[in-house]
Amino acid sequence: MATRQVFCGFGQTGAGDDSGYSSPTAPANFSQALRAGQPWLTHAYVRYVGIVLSSAPGAGRSATFTLMRNGVDTAMAFTIGAAETTGGIAGCLELLEGDTILLRRAYLDGGIGFKFLYSTVVIDNVVANESGYGHVDGTNVIGTYGIGPFSGAFWEAASYAGPMDVVAAGGTLTQYRVTLDAAPDAGGSYTFYLIKNGVDQDGSGGTIDTRVTIPDSTATGNFTGSLPLVANDEVVLRYSFTGAPGNRDVNFGSKFVATIDGQSQACNSKVGGPPTLGLDTYYRQYLSTGTQVDWALTEFVSRNSSPFPFDLRGIWWISKGLGFNPVCTISVRVNSADPVGAPSATGSTDGSDPTNQITVAAGD
């Protein structure tokens, strides 16, 4: 059975007149610089790409979105017209291990202004148990940063106590690849490595050595191995550097092999808790990847949907470093309602519901 992945992203279109580029599976801000591309590490087929804008482009204007593979436009492209807010295209675009992907946007007649963007991408993997993830970022890596190996979320955090991905499906992370926009400056290098449950996975103390060093002679590093993960593990990709490697943009991809065929991860992280204490209910997009989506006082209605059905099973969450630990329940809503049997987890610093499962129908 192939593993179906549904990526629901949130980002910003940008206000420039020319083309912009971002991650298809974890969009954030669109950069006007053509990037190296998000590494994709499984054999898979892209079945759908869809976009919802926060408002229509306006009279005489439009926005065209195109999925790129290996730096070349594909036939998976669509245009959102002047009075429209939604667009999408179904297809069957093959991705091979090692391909790169990008989502390109182009505007007609002077841009469409600043808008929020909600995306849905459906990918069917070919090899049993495998799933793929990735990230494209225009943020320089000089500083102290972390990357979610499954969410693609990119954040600045001074220590492990910052955000990380909480594992939902047990299995093994077997590969990750980092591609910088250019090789490090002469004499400098970057070393990337995974942290699991607060422990550097660098080969010391019996840990798996997940280190990838990118010297000044190349812009790409690749890890292949086996980092075992179980539900509720915490994992993040971090880096160190030597010399003065210079600021570089990061393009990242990973491969996960689930213990149970058909299962995959849906992760994200957010710095900070709900915006105001003392109020009862907050909302955020459950499957949103990439950007750190804020909790909101009103529900995101009909922002993301898939034209293909999928099963959503379990929920795990962890709260760190907030300075307060109120008891709360995090639950899943579909079509602005609480489905019977939907995952729901209660706690103060963490919560889990490994068993409840619902089927999300096409268009939900």
Offer a quick outline of the entry:
The chain contains no helices and 25 strands. It is an all-beta fold and 364 residues long.
Descriptive labels:
364 residues, mainly beta, 5-stranded mixed β-sheet, 5-stranded antiparallel β-sheet, 46% strand
For the biggest β-sheet, the strand order reads 7-4-9-1-21
The whole-number mean of residue pLDDT values reads: 84
Largest sheet, strands/sense/barrel: 5 strands, mixed
How many β-strand runs?
25
Number of helices: 0
Gap from first CA to last CA: 23 Å
Describe this structure in words.
By secondary structure, this protein is mostly beta strands. It contains no helices and 25 strands. It has strands at residues 4-12, 20-22, 38-39, 44-53, 62-69, 72-80, 86-95, 100-108, 116-125, 130-136, 145-147, 154-156, 165-166, 171-180, 189-196, 199-200, 212-214, 220-229, 234-242, 250-258, 288-289, 310-318, 328-331, 344-347, 350-360. The strands form 7 sheets. It has a 5-stranded mixed β-sheet, with no helix packed on it. The radius of gyration is 20 Å and the shape is globular. The model has no long low-confidence stretch (mean pLDDT 84).
List the helices and strands and how they pair.
Elements: E1 4-12, E2 20-22, E3 38-39, E4 44-53, E5 62-69, E6 72-80, E7 86-95, E8 100-108, E9 116-125, E10 130-136, E11 145-147, E12 154-156, E13 165-166, E14 171-180, E15 189-196, E16 199-200, E17 212-214, E18 220-229, E19 234-242, E20 250-258, E21 288-289, E22 310-318, E23 328-331, E24 344-347, E25 350-360
Parallel strand pairs: 1-21
Antiparallel strand pairs: 1-9, 2-8, 3-8, 4-7, 4-9, 5-6, 5-8, 10-20, 11-12, 13-19, 14-18, 14-20, 15-16, 15-17, 15-19, 22-25, 23-24
